[in-house]
């Protein structure tokens, strides 16, 4: 029996993991400050109750109780920003690690992002700090770094394209992945046990922003002029060099175009 606690089970990735564990009939509990609203995620089985307990990783509220009888913890809780002078991600990960040291948990799995060790961006630095805390903790762990989920790329393009003219850095690269494939990989890791390493997982294609936006406009039936903007600054240069992409491709993942077709209908 392998009981799983999904911390951050109400988020985008968390709800995809809920769906996967429901399908695989795995015993799990979700922990977060707010309960997952079943109808917000079409994939989640609407007819079964999603086991949930209130956990706040900042205050530690609910954590010792949530960990009772748990074998594997999926740490999917996250937010950008800081608490005082420290990254939010660092604080919540440290709090989780100290609670885990008092528990019987045998495997901690942390969801990170491809390129956090290379790209100078505050949220990525926070994720790297959290990874290092886990690696130095002596606890049995696996870190899964994934590339950007389709929903995130979709939302980012929605913002960039909200003006009458789209200003797009066409040469930026991205490797979007289906969140369901990341959930499937996390499920597999719960079954294989601690790997004591970092694993990368990327989408099936690396595309430039020009291609991403062209397909996005076609499926969204949006027509407006696009002005390419130059690649300026170290952050944009990192993204143009593809430092957040990886050779490890999830071939079971939908492509960007399939995601768009499924979400917005045929072009
Ligand atoms: N989105 C991407 O494209 C992407 C790509 C690669 C990796 N990742 C990583 O995958 C993980 C999940 O991302 P996501 O997009 O699913 O994020 P999300 O939708 O923003 O979900 C974040 C989760 O964290 C929980 N949370 C926040 N503060 C908390 C606290 N103090 N205590 C307990 N739970 C808390 C939230 O629940 P409550 O607010 O209810 O507490 C929510 O369930 C993150 O670590 C992210 O870095 C994301």
UniProtKB/TrEMBL annotation:
Pfam families referenced in this protein's UniProt entry, alphabetically: NAD_binding_10 (PF13460)
Family matches, as SUPFAM superfamilies: NAD(P)-binding Rossmann-fold domains
InterPro entries the UniProt entry points to: ComplexI_NDUFA9_subunit, NAD(P)-bd_dom, NAD(P)-bd_dom_sf
Domain NAD(P)-binding: 8-151
Domain of life the protein comes from: Bacteria
One MF annotation (Gene Ontology) recorded for this entry: protein-containing complex binding
PANTHER family: NADH DEHYDROGENASE [UBIQUINONE] 1 ALPHA SUBCOMPLEX SUBUNIT 9, MITOCHONDRIAL, NADH-UBIQUINONE OXIDOREDUCTASE 39 KDA SUBUNIT-RELATED
Record protein name field: NAD(P)H-binding protein
Organism per entry: Spirosoma validum
